[in-house]
Amino acid sequence: MTEVLAIIPARGGSKGIPRKNVLPLAGKPLIAWTIEAAREARRVSRVVVSTDDDEIAEVAAAAGAEVLRRPAELAGDLTPTEPVLIHVVETLRKTEGYQPDLLVLAQCTSPLRGADIMEAGIRLLLETGCDCVLTVAPVAHWRLRGEIGPQGEWRAEYDFGERGFSQQHAQKYSENGALYVLRREVLETYHNRLGGDVRALVMDWAHSLDIDRPEDFALAEKLMRVL
User: Fold this and answer.
1) How is residue 72 annotated by DSSP?
2) Does residue 92 sit within a domain?
3) Among 11, 31, 88, 172, which is disulfide-ready with 108 (CB 3.0 to 4.6 Å)?
4) For residue 81, what is the domain's CATH number?
5) What domain range includes position 63?
6) Is there a domain that residue 168 lies in?
């Protein structure tokens, strides 16, 4: 049987929304939604939360996850996710001799990504034989991008005279950060969550909601009532 390890990174020092990972969302701490989704996913064997924070560790354990404490040097504002994944994998290998076949990286800031999406991501990897799967969402108005200068001037990245119509262009997508599924060897070889044969799993904009601003909590609760 394929051994699948779900890893949920959650550090205590979130800056945009302080204590974001444990703030209540529809009656549960934010992180609990992702833990519960991972535990409900049939193909997920273990769920581990990597954290440096006592409160997050307590909340994660109460929600049913295993907790692995990470060192302070892996909990900085600019710490990439990959070293955290490597720390979890190497620690479990050294302490337990445990080596999963697949890793599921699930960010707790995507509370509307449920067990069904996790199952779909794992299934896509297994059925296609690819190395990685990532979730993506459609990008609206991608052709009409630009930057805003210091005086508010619009620096367009397109020709004003050739706006065209959306029907004339292929749909573009962007990573939504909700889910990554990868073979353990990908992380060990590339030191990255992505590498080799990468496939995309499309999610709609609502289920792709990322909790990044205070108002996103209210929006997420509204979406939960209608989805």
Assistant:
1) G
2) yes
3) 31
4) 3.90.550.10
5) 4-137+174-226
6) no
Tell me, yes or no, whether 27 lies in a domain. yes
Give the total number of structural domains in the chain: 1
pTM confidence score: 0.93
Name the CA dihedral angle for 7, 92, 126, 189, rounded to a multiple of 10 degrees: 100
Residue recorded with tokens 């997050």: 56
Q: Which two tokens stand for residue 185?
A: 């060897």
Give domain status of residue 192, yes or no. yes
Question: Could you read off the pLDDT tens digit of each residue along the chain, which spans 227 residues?
Answer: 899 999 999 999 887 899 999 999 999 999 999 999 999 999 999 999 999 999 999 999 999 999 999 999 999 989 999 999 999 999 999 999 999 999 999 999 999 999 999 999 999 999 999 999 999 999 887 778 899 999 999 998 888 877 766 666 778 999 999 999 999 999 999 999 999 999 999 999 999 999 999 999 999 999 999 98
